[in-house]
Design a protein that fits this description.
alpha+beta, 6 strands, 20% strand, globular
């Protein structure tokens, strides 16, 4: 059985878990809430097992408001499929599926239709990344390739998509200076 829950990505000088929307939640040893390796520039991903208490959309809006920076939330089901939503301050929310084959099975939307959305989804994701100050010079076809990928674990696809969008690569905090 894989991971089911939410991945929250954003930029802050403070841990995102301190955002008021999380109600004082803390990282724990049992794996309920864990921080992924940070990315330079204050970019961070937090993993929440289970559903966020206020819903992914409300959390996304609250994180963007609290940080004043673009953010995204991926709702993951059993490590097989995810809906990733992004938002920038003053912008409109966009949503994309990760792992289209499984998305077609669980969404009642034909694979061909999901695939036809990929070029527009890639452009929206790249515009969002550029609003965050990254993504210049990124070829949209590399984003399309990531969106069409069917990696075994959708969390890996999520992380790879952030890399391809031009965000700084995650760094092991135990080996950084």
């Amino acid at each position: 059985m894989g991971f089911s829950g939410e991945l929250v990505f954003g930029r802050s000088a403070r841990p995102l878990i301190e955002a008021p929307v999380f109600g004082g939640a803390q990282e724990d040893d049992e794996g309920g809430i864990t921080a992924w390796w940070p990315r330079p520039g204050g970019w961070q991903t937090w993993q929440f097992h289970g559903t966020l208490p206020r819903g992914a959309g409300a959390v996304l809006r609250a994180v963007v408001e609290w940080t004043g920076a673009p953010a995204c939330v991926a709702s993951v089901h059993d490590s097989d499929v995810a809906v990733m939503s992004g938002l920038e301050p003053g912008g409109e929310q966009w949503d994309i599926w990760l792992n289209l084959r499984t998305a077609a099975e669980v969404s009642d939307c034909p694979l061909a239709e999901l695939d036809s959305r990929v070029p527009g989804d890639a452009r929206r994701a790249l515009a969002w990344a550029r609003s965050a100050g990254v993504g210049d010079g990124v070829d949209p076809t590399t984003i399309e390739e990531a969106l069409r990928s069917d990696r075994t674990f959708v969390e890996d696809l999520y992380d790879a998509l952030l890399d391809r969008l031009g965000f700084p690569l995650a760094v092991d905090p135990d080996t950084s200076c």
